[in-house]
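Self-study notes.
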Amino acid sequence: MALNQNPASPALSASTVLFIVADAFRYDYFTPPNTPTMWRLAESGLYVRRLRPNFGFCERAETFTGTRPDANGFFTALTYDETNSEFLSFKKDIWLLSLFDWRAEFMRRYIRRFYRDWFKKVRRVNQPVYEIPLKILPRIALTEDLRDLHQPNWSNIETIFDVMRESGKTFYYDTFASLTMPMGGDDDRVNQICRAFQETPRDFYLLYIGEGDGTGHDYGPESVQTAAMTRRVDKRIKIVSDAFFEAFPDGRMLIIGDHGMLEVAGILDAQSKILRTGRKAGLRAGRDFDYFLDSTLVRLWFRTEKSGDVFRDLFNTDAAFCNEGHVMTCEEAARLHVPPPDGRYGDLIWIAHPGALIFPDFFHFRKICRGMHGYETHIPAQQGFALVVGRDIEQAEIQEAELIDICPTICSLLGIRAPKQNAGKSLL
């Protein structure tokens, strides 16, 4: 089936729409034994076998704007911003806490727990501390998590929710996985949205199912635990779909796995190499350079010319860095449709090869992940799936589409225009 660039297909009239995002539900998790409900739905609707996100960690921005990272500006969850960091107002508090010797495991855990609880209770904010060194926090800023996507003026990029408001469409927003907002359990979310179908009529409903991401990270995509997770997700989708079509017989449902998961094959301690190289060259983190460790990315910002020379040499000559990944070039950034290494996301960005894992990183300190995403997404294991069912949706199959195609597809189902910057193509 050919993709239709028209954001509001004239073949479809507006309908109530349910959109389910199954986080990290890899394309090949979709099987008759493990996902019988979704498999039956696919036999009567539009099934996209592989849904390819863009490179990076900001799938929500892609999904609800129809834009790639180089257009929407969102590449990773946290980035470098000395002037707009959410932690600037807490700089003195952070400095005081950093005086403690938290290098010992028990002290580290205590200080981190105290820090989070204190910010929630006293400062009344929920901040993503994770394992980010306390001293660099005031230079770190949130990207797509700065505010929830459904809020007006979320960014300088128009979202599908902006268009809904303009068009008079109402929506039920289920908070996505976020660094700053606590998530309830998937079963609670299912129960809440099923009640909303009866009690809170809307034109658009969003449900987030997050179990796939955590299970994939903890046990790996090939594990028995992940297989069991797929069956649980399928059962939740059956409960929700039954309730939805009972409440809205003429409704339409769109289900996606937003990205995949890859088995971890090797571990690289990038932090030790960076700090050891810095010490040998007389460079100090926080004074001469800053760095951030994502699971599959190393990002450095150079505060002195010497630090740039030292670390460019390290990443381009060290055997481990050369074997397990490579330094991103501006040309590669353009090919991947991500912001270039120009300061916002790093003066130097190192990309891990598929299966390589940076550990420890600033999100994981004690437990090594067995599954990871954030690699180049031409690899099938990094891809999800999509399924559209309901009134006037003909049975068809598409081998591959892009995550940015989901935004105009939702617009087609709702009978509204796509966001202005949308680069996707409706699946309908």
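Second protein, same conventions, sequence then structure:
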Amino acid sequence: MAEILFPALFVLLALGLPVAFAMAISVFVALSFGSSYPNLVVVKEMFSGLDSFPLLAVPFFILAAEIMTGGAVTLAMLRLAQSLVGHLKGGLGHANVVSSAMFAGISGSALADAAGPGTMMIRMMEKGGYGRAYAGALTISSSVVGPIIPPSITMIIYAMQDQQVSVGSLFMAGVLPGILITAAVLLANARVSHKRGYASGAPMPPLGEIARIALYALPALMLVVLIVGGIRFGVFTPTEASVIAVFYALFVGMFVYRSLRVADLPAIILRAALVSGAVLLILGAARAFAWVLIIEGVPQFLAETIIAWDLSPIVFLLAVNALLLVFGLFMDPLPGVMILVPILAPIANSLGIAADHFAIIVIVNLTFGLITPPVGGLIFVVASATNQRPSALIRELPPFFLAALVVLAILTFVPGLSTWLPAISGFSRG
């Protein structure tokens, strides 16, 4: 079946079908022409992939993000970011990057980051004299931190595929890599801004005003502390944390910022349901796709082949980086995690690679796939939101591609960036 499955998938992706539909249809085609299994098995496996209590965290975190991304919360983040770095050369660009990092702790999604505060920052940067395409490319590059800094939907899905890690350990493992990615994009923006003469924004406000702005944004930023702290001290499970996040978001939106009304809730719930449905459809299709690979013995064959090569841990990680960067050209992070982690994680474990370290390598690689054509989801989200050609955005991305490769190299050769916080916080299992 595998000889039918993969060609069918590539043909359907080339025709422009969404990833979820391409994967599901390719499985149907493989079963119809390459096996005696009834097509009903596909539906069964899709439902089996979604029949999971930990998976309930996904729609609830999405709902919490939708509630928290109201006007007041987003503006609070933008004001804080601008007050901290807006006075520097290329200040509006720096504010874009910093606000993306802060917003990541609310949304857990790169696409939500780009479509929300990212779009607002593009308009502000354009008014400040920045090239429109460059502002869009910067937003694309800074938004990749969304699935890295907790809470992260991608990390929740990863923890379901690899029993060597927990949601809590991955949340902590992502903090320093997320900061590193943010720093790399800031440096790239500083270099481009210096070269093109992009001026700074408003002068740095007094420290007292910065403190007031930070205090105003603090309730939104405390969401991450609430989630991670609650999981660490055993107050609630990750799934329960997602529900707590929803109630916290409702409280903050209604009673702290007072920007959320009861009349707004039906539209918010509808948007969250649509996003959740799309995510769960991808996960269900990925489960069916992975089932075909398993019954065909593809994971076992690949594992035995790679182990037979007797690679050192560092050479294996470099090979994984190359594989995932190519894979990310054509596949979104969530199905990538569902398909590849059950194959690669046991091999990494057998080579003595720390589970949290390997998880971050996989997640960061697949997330960078969102900024690489031809499938790069962030490119098309920003292009659609700002009425630009994807090609114009792609031409501005090379400095950020280089920054991404530097980050990957550092994360590969310095495992402590991924393992230190889980270890000292008590989340690590190893």
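Instructor comment on the second fold: The chain has a mean pLDDT of 86.
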